[in-house]
Structure formats: structure tokens, C-alpha cells
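Lecture 7 notes. Example A: sequence first, then its C-alpha cells.
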Amino acid sequence: MAFHFSKAFKVFVETSSFVFARIIANAYFVMFSAVIAVFFLFGPVFFALAAPLPDIFLAAGVFVFLFYWSFFRKRILYVLKSSAIVVVSEFLSGRNIPVSMQASFGFNLIKKKFHSLKNFRKFEQFPKKVMRKIYGVLGFVSFIPNVNSAVLSSVISYVFADNSVDYYTSLRDSLVLFYQRKNFILFQIFAMQIFSYIIFFLSYLVFFYLFNPFIVVFSYPFDLFAYFLVFLLLLLIYSSFISHFLICWQIVFFIETIKTDDPKKSKRDVLENLSPEFNQISAKAKVFVPLKSLASRHLLASLETSSKKKNFLSSLDGIIKDKDALEEHIKGEDALSELVSEVSNIDKVTKKKRVKIRLEEEKQKSFEKYEKEREYNTVFNLLLEFLGNELGKREKFEISSLQRQGENWAAIVLINKEKFAFLLDSKGKVIEFEEKQ
């Protein structure tokens, strides 16, 4: 199913700690909101204010409540939501976090990557501005409550899907992947939000019919206070359960939709011409390889740590460049050894000397030739190993040229038909690489 409802529900259960955290936070919000309601509803009665002051008092109460709700969302719910995005992305990447430390883990990982929550908010401004350009004629969706926020959360979740790649590279690829299927993704997320609004509306109708017979017996302003408490109760349930489930649902849907897609270079070029903010993101990205999937996003981490798998060369034995040359060289050494043993049986010293000198010269030439080829083959094989480890078997790559450049080696590699220049030292360690235009 395109909506991935069952998988989203599984992730929702595994990250249920955020539901309880939201219940506690929302319970405090409900209590303070009730205090606000008591003051602004019963204040005019207590002070015996004449019309139209009670109505003004009530309007002021609505304004204060909305201000308090905005503050609560930005200072409390935003932190919980951001931490939930991190943890859900970790679960989708196959990493389990204990329930007792999920909220703190998500918050600490944000601080580790961005140093502070303030920097993370600034980071979010880049995709927000880019998405306005991506929407195009669908720009009206940004005015629909929570749709724009849901899309942003989904795009940001890709940043935390793999810790081995810097976040600007992940963000660039995430925006490209979103752009490639924007109509489908926007429609599905829009449908999810509409579904949640329908659930909220139907729930309020059920609550209204359940509590209305008890509320109508009260007179003003007690009846308004009772209706407000019903609304707060529903808001508590919605913000605790439905909101977190929507986060899980939207992230699961986005990751599952684009995880096998290629961030095409042609689409990236379109975005670079479309949005100056995307250019800033692309300029700060450290990896230029057009990676295909989350599993392929280890190239930069391997470049920094130079970690290699010892057994990889055995699987590449059939394509080692110098295999035939090495066998011929071994045969040549055996032949030379036999020739030496035959020459040793010759009695004439002068002939022995001539043969020995000739053999020494041949050995020296063979050794010098082998030394040159050995360094070439060592660098070639280590580069091949590096690419095979980090790009995987599904990626198509080919070393088109490898030449000595001073003390280092320069290679041109075709990765999915795209040219990349690699620089390696004499020991075969990758120093740097860049995309060739």
C-alpha cells in the first residue's frame, strides 16, 4: 500500500515514549489553558463588568490562548517533534534506541550535528525557501495547516537517515528526490492531513453529543467553560497520539517512496537554476557523487576513516589487471632458474660469466619492470577496492585511466557514466575526489 500504514503503526509503537512525553507536556498546557479560561470567562462576572466589556474580555482571552498555544508549539512541541524525527529516522535505518532514552537521544543528536537547536532552526530555513520554489503552481498547499510542516519534516528526516554523510549532502539529495516526485508526495501527505482533520472533527462531534446533555444544564459562562474543556480534552488526545502517529506515518511514507530513487543530476541542475537557496545547500555539500540510495551513502565516511575490508580483493580476483602479467613473470623466473642450473654444469668459466652477466641483466630489467607495474597495480587494486566497498555491487563504475602525477597518482573514474577525478598517494590511499564537468 502506498500509504505504508502498517509499517508506520509499527514505528509508532516502537517510539511510543514520545506519546507519553507529549501527554505530560500537553497536560500542563491544558491546566494553564484552563486557568486562562477561568480568568477571562469569570473575570467579568467577578468584577461585575457591564457590556460590552465581557465580550472584549472574551476576545482578549482567545488572543491570549492563541499566543500561549503558539509559544507552547515553538518551545515544547517543536523540541519533541524534532527529536521524534531523529528517532524515527534511526529506526528506519535499522538502529534501535531504548524507549527510556529516545527523547534525549534525538535532542542530543541534533545538538551534536548542529551544536544547538537555534542552528537547527536556521538550517530548516533553507529547505523551507527551496520548497516554495518547488511547489510552483501547487504553492497553495503551503497555506493549508500542517501540510508544509509535514513535508519539511519528511525532507529533514532524510538528513538523519545516515550519519556517515554530512547533512548538507543529505539535504541536497532529499530536496532533489522530493522534486522528482513532488506531485505524488504532496497529494499523499495532503490526504494524510485531511484524514487527520476528519478524525478530529468527527471526534469533536462524538464528544459534543456525549457531553452536551450535561453541559446544557449550566448557564453562562459555565457552559462556555465546559465546551472549552471538551475542546482541550480532544486537543490533548490529538496532540499526544494523532500528531506523533502522523509524524511516523509521513516520514515512513517519504523514505519508503524515495529510498530506491536516484537523485538525478538533471533535476539537481533544474533546482540550482530555480532557487538560490538550493545553490547554497549544494555548494556546502561535501559529496559530489550522485548516490543512488541510503545504502550507498558511505563514500565520504570511508574517505575520512580509510577503513577497508581485507577480503574484498579475493572477490575481485577475476578482474585484477595484472593477473596474467604476474603469472608470466613467475613463469619467467622459473625458466631463469632452470637456465642457471644448466649453466652451472658448464666447465668453461668465461661462458659461465657471460651467461651469469646476461642473467643478472635480465633479472634486473625484469625486477625494475615488475617494481613499476607493482606500484601501478597496487594503487589500481586499492582504488578498485575502495569503490567496490563504498558504492556496492549495484553501482556501475569503471577506472578509465590511472597515471602517475608527481609523487601521487591521478585517476579518472566513471560512476554511473559520470566522470570523477580521484587523487591517491603512492600507497593507494584516496586523498580527494571531485566531480568532472
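Example B, a different protein, same format:
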Amino acid sequence: MVSKQLSVFDNHWLSLAASQADNDSWVKQVVKDIKGSGGIYLCILRIWFQRFPLKSNKVKGHLKEGLESFNTKDHLGAVNELSWWELMTSFGWSAQPLPAFTTSRPDFHILTPTDFFCEVTTLNVSEKDRMLLDSGKGVRLNHGPTIGRILRKITNSKKEQIEYGASKKKSSILVLFDYTTWSGFGARLYRELVHYLLGENFGFLSLPSELSAMIYTERKVIDGHIVISKERSAVYHNPQAVYPIPETIFQMMRQFFLRLDEVEPSEFITTKDHWFLL
């Protein structure tokens, strides 16, 4: 018996979204413009979900649950996994999703252009910033606490996923999607990360040597379409990595190395080409 193909954002979900979405949910903005950018956004995610290569409905059902969640954090976590898959596909990479099952595993096993593992994670608005914004107060631009949260995420909640690659004698990378308060405002956190991780502080010393590289990405939604910034996304290579990853893998992105050496993307970024359009 062939199992029924799962879908997302059906009429039943749309009905619930229209009646139950609260002010803090991502759903509010989508429902508000369902005939415009909101509808485009849902349509794109439907297409991505259908072609995402998970064979088991049980496993794909977990992704569906995340996408359809009214909780913004849960929704963004699922969207970012799909977004990174779509970006890898646009790069011409061959990859396989790795369902977690009973052990902590990274999200993807990349097979070509080289063999490595990849974990995708999201950095949301901090509770402190959320409380300030909810009370009508402003939030000061201070990258220090945000960098601290990134380091704790790598060393704590993502430690097992990063170590998985090393257990297979392969490289491991972490892809970080930034949704903090100042993301999207041109605050250039990617530059602050360069100086912290590879400058005088040498922050990579406090991170696992199993981490081959970290990719910082800034994602936005423009007229319903999901895009990733070329200018404010970057790859940081860990100079103490047990299994380094070749710089040639990331020629389409800005890369940083020890002594703050920088390699520009192979394709020149023009004023008309600021985004990876997914």
C-alpha cells in the first residue's frame, strides 16, 4: 500500500491560522497578505517541502510540524533547514538529509564536491531584547552578547552534532542563520565575528577542534521570496580543525582565515546582485 504524500499549509491549516495566530507569531504577517507576499511565501515552502528528499512520512511529518507551527522559533528552524538545502542545490552540491532518530546527528551529509557533514542552526532574538522591545524600549547595538550566545550554542547544544563528523573522520561545518535584533540592519556582525574568532581573541581556541568551519548567514524575506545576503554572509575556517575543509568548496561566499586573511567570492558582488535568491 502506497502511503499518502504529505503536504503543508492546506485549507484546514489556513483556517486555523486566520483564527488563532497571535500577535507574536510569524503567521500574522502571512495571513495579513495571503493574496500577496504571504501567499507567495507559503507557496515556495510548499514546493520546497514536496521536493525535500525524505523517504519516510514519519520523518517528513516532523518537518511538517515545524513548518506549520505557529511558534516562530520552531517555524524558522524548519524553514532554515529547507533554505540551506535549496542553497546547496543551487551550488550544485550532492547531499543527503540525516534524520536524527535516536542519536544526535547533523542535518546533512554532503557527498560532493567533497565529503563532509553540516548542521544548521538558528540564533533567535534574545529574551532580554524581546522584553525590551515588548515594553516599547530600544535595544542598544552591542555584538558582545550575541557572539557569546553563538559560542555557547556551538559548545553546548550543537556539540554532539559537530563531533559526529569527526567520528566518521570527516569535516563538520555549522551553518548559523542570524535572526537577532540587528540582523538585516547592515550591522555587520559577520565582521565582528572575524575579529573575535580569528583576531587577537582567537575565539576558535574555545571551540571544538571537530568544527572545521562556521558559516554565518543573514536571511531575509523580500516580497515573499527567501533570500540570503551575499555581502553579510561569510565562512570562518577553524585553524585548529582536526579535519579542515578546502576553501575551494565555498568559492561563492566570502571566506576568512587565520591572521584575518580574506578571500572574496569568485563571482564579483555588484549593486544589483546582493542576494542568493532561493
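Note on Example B: Residues 66 and 74 are 5 Å apart (CA to CA). The two ends are 35 Å apart (CA to CA).
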